[in-house]
Every structure is written in C-alpha cells, then in structure tokens.
C-alpha cells in the first residue's frame, strides 16, 4: 500500500504581526518590563520572527526569567535559522555545536554558521574568525584577521579592539602605527583590559594597499588544528607538558576576555563544598561560565581537553587566573575529598588538570610537584597536564602540586579542570 501523505500544516504566518509584536517587546525592554518583553517575544515567535525566536532561545539557554531549557533553546534557534535567522542565530548555533552535547560537533556546519554570522557583522563571530585566521600562515590570512578585528572594533567590541591594538603596534597584518595603537590601548586599559602592545618580531607581513578584500570565509576551518608534541615529565602521577598549545595571540585573547572580571580567588571547603577565601591561594580569578563563555574560548578549551584525552563536555568552565608579585598557590591537590558535596554533582570527581601559561613570568611562578621533584617553568603558550586519580579511579595523593610565588612581574594562567563524566548542559 502507498504511504499515507503527511498532513499539510495549516498554520498561517503573519510576518507583519510578528514584526509589530517584536517592536513591542523591544519597547518593554527600554522600561525594564522583562515580563512584558517575554510576552511579546512569545507572540512574535509564534509568527516565526527570527530575532524573537533567537532572543527567546537565549532566555531558555541561560534561564533568564524561566528554568534553563537548552533543548528548547536549540529548537528555537533552528526555527529562527529556517526563517532567515539573524547574525546572532548562527553564532549561537555554532557555539552550541562546539559543545557537542545538544548538536553534533560537525566541523563543516560549525564553519558555515560562524562564517555566516561573521559575514553579517556579528562582533563575537568576527572575533572568533580573526583568531582563527591569525593562526594561519600567509599575508592573506593575516590581513583577513585584521579586517575581522576592524569590523568588530567598529561595532565596539573591546576584546577585538585590544587584539587590533596589538597588531597595530607590531605591524602584523597591517601597517605599524604605534601612536594609534597606544591611544587605543590607553582607552582599553581604562576599562580594565591590560593591552600588551607586543613589539614587532621581525617577521611582519607586507600589507596590501587599498580597500581590504573580503576575508576567505570558505577557509575558516575553526577546528583544523594539530596538537604540538607532548613531553612526559613524570609517569606516576602522569605529568606532561606541551609547548605552543596556544599561540601568543590566543593567550592574549583569554587575558583580554576575562581580565575585567577578576576577583579574589577562593578554595572549596572540603566538607561543605562552599567557596571561601584562604591564604593557601592568593591569586585573582574568574570563570568563563555559560553566560560569559564564547565560541573562541570553547575552541581553545577543546584543545586543552584533547591534551588530556577528554572532550569539552568533561571540562569545567575555563578559569583565568592572575598572580601578582608574592602571590602563590601553596601545595594542594585538585581532586575532591570523598566527603565533599562537589563529588556528587554532575561530572563527579576531578580526573585531570590542564594549566596553560598565558605569559612568560619575569621571575618565579613555577608549577612544582614536590613528591616527584618535577618543576615546570611558565612560558607563554606552554601547558602542563597532570592526573589527579589512579587508573582505578582512586585519588592519587602524589598529585600534590603548587604554584610557587611570583618574584617579579605577574603570571597569567588558564586552568581547565576535567571531570570523570560529562557535566555541560550545552
């Protein structure tokens, strides 16, 4: 027998009504009427308004005014894309797909979504594209990185502006202009972004004159990277290092993304599981939790997880740390005590840690494993990975480690704690 035809949808889409309702939602936001805004967004979304669908997805994704519902958020974003989408629609789809939980980590689809968003001028997507083009050899890619950063800076994205200032100062992908770089850097430093302004390294690319060409979006390839060689430093516990896990620009990207949000570091109480300040740890830190995470950070954290043999789903939110002169992290272990409530939370016990140094410390700041006489010197882009558990899953007390005091300068560090099970919602 022939198959029964699927019923034809009788839903009537009123685009004009969707636009009117969306405008009402925006008007409610001006007066901080969040409930009213959500009401009109729902009405506009019923008529498949792409911006309304996208904004509703964000509410569901992060639990703004409602319970978190990432699955519903993805469905709303896919509906928005089918209705033409917005630059933010495709950026969010790419970011969620990088997580590999709610959408498959399909590299081609992620590249297409991110390229669409960047091409349409979404600052976060331009920032990610710039970071990726900047890792490629050749003047075409370096100029593409600059074009992306310039467009994002024009849209008032501060992290892109900081990276652009660095390139202006060093003459990388653009003609060197130290005076303009310094003006831009001073403006950003007043905002709490510690722009570095690296000097030219003698390998600056020649820049093309005239109007910049459109970046080669077809060559974005966000996940096309190979891990550098990993050097084992100790067998039991396993300790390994990897020089060049992150590039100089990627290291600065992390610093510029999180520096404004640093607070005094805390430790987890072994019994209550509550955070508290304690002199064992005297740094400043911040975590790129889902509301502050971005696709660029996810791409770098995927690489950190790969060094330890784990997927991003097992990784806690990446933590940025700053140690000033005299700051240190006294000897400690990263695994949770069996009595800690943290061990019962999604993800379970901490299995491994990957720490990536984001600058070359002037003096001090080494990571040491006192039980094994292993010392790792901080160099920009170098990562140290170690296991906190034995092969049978029991805690390894020999994973004891410390961050020695910074004697001169400062130390920037990105720490990725990795759990035995997946813990991310998207």
Number of domains: 3
| Amino- and carboxy-terminal Cα gap | 43 Å
Main sheet attributes: strand count, strand direction, barrel closure: 8 strands, antiparallel
Q: Strand portion, in percent?
A: 5-15%
Mean pLDDT: 93
The secondary-structure element order is: HHHHHHHHHHEEHEEEEHEEEEEEEEEE
CATH superfamily of the largest domain: q2cbj1_9rhob like domain
**Total helix count?**
12
Structural class: alpha+beta
Unreliable segments (pLDDT under 50, ≥5 consecutive)?
A: none
Residues in helices, as a percent range: 25-40%
Overall form: globular
Would you report the number of β strands?
Answer: 16
Return the CATH architecture of the largest domain: Sandwich
Give the strand order of the largest sheet, numbering strands 1, 2, ... along the chain.
Answer: 1-2-13-9-16-7-6-3
Rounded radius of gyration (Å): 23 Å
> CATH class of the largest domain, anyone?
Mainly Beta
Question: What name does the CATH topology of the largest domain carry?
Answer: Jelly Rolls
Plain-language structure description:
With 426 residues, the chain is an alpha+beta fold. Helix content is 37%, strand content 15%. A hairpin with a 4-residue loop joins strand 11 (367-369) and strand 12. The longest helix has 16 residues, at 15-30. The chain is globular and about 70 Å long.
């Amino acid at each position: 027998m022939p198959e029964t035809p699927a019923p034809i949808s009788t839903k009537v889409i009123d685009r004009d009504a969707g636009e009117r309702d969306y405008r009402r939602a925006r008007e409610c936001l001006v007066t901080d009427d969040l409930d009213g805004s959500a009401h009109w967004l729902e009405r506009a979304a019923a008529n498949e308004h792409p911006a309304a669908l996208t904004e509703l997805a964000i509410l569901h994704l992060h639990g703004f005014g409602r319970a978190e519902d990432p699955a519903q958020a993805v469905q709303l974003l896919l509906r928005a894309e089918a209705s033409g989408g917005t630059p933010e629609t495709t950026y969010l789809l790419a970011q969620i797909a990088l997580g590999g939980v709610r959408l498959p980590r399909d590299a081609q689809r992620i590249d297409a979504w991110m390229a669409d968003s960047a091409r349409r001028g979404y600052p976060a997507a331009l920032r990610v594209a710039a970071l990726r083009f900047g890792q490629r050899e050749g003047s075409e890619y370096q100029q593409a990185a600059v074009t992306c950063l310039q467009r994002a800076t024009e849209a008032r994205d501060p992290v892109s502006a900081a990276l652009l200032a660095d390139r202006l100062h060093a003459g990388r992908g653009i003609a060197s202009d130290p005076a303009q770089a310094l003006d831009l850097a001073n403006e950003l430093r007043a905002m709490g972004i510690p722009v570095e302004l690296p000097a030219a390294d003698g390998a600056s690319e020649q820049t093309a004159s005239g109007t910049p060409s459109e970046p080669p979006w077809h060559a974005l390839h966000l996940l096309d990277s190979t891990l550098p060689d990993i050097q084992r430093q100790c067998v039991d516990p396993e300790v390994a290092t990897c020089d060049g896990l992150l590039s100089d620009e990627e290291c600065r990207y992390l610093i510029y993304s999180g520096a404004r949000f640093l607070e005094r570091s805390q430790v987890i109480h072994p019994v209550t599981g509550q955070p508290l300040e304690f002199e064992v740890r005297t740094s400043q830190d911040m975590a790129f939790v889902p509301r502050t995470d971005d696709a660029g950070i996810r791409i770098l954290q995927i690489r950190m997880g790969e060094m330890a043999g784990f997927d991003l789903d097992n990784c806690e939110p990446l933590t940025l740390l700053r140690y000033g002169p005299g700051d240190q992290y006294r000897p400690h272990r990263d695994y949770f005590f069996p009595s800690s409530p943290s061990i019962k939370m999604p993800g379970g016990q901490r299995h491994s840690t990957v720490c990536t140094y984001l600058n070359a410390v002037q003096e001090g700041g080494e990571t040491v494993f006192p039980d094994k006489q292993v010392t790792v010197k901080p160099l920009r882009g170098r990562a140290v990975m170690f296991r906190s558990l034995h092969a049978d899953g029991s805690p390894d007390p020999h994973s004891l480690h410390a961050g020695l005091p910074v004697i001169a300068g400062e130390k920037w560090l990105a720490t990725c704690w990795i759990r035995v099970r997946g813990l991310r919602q998207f």
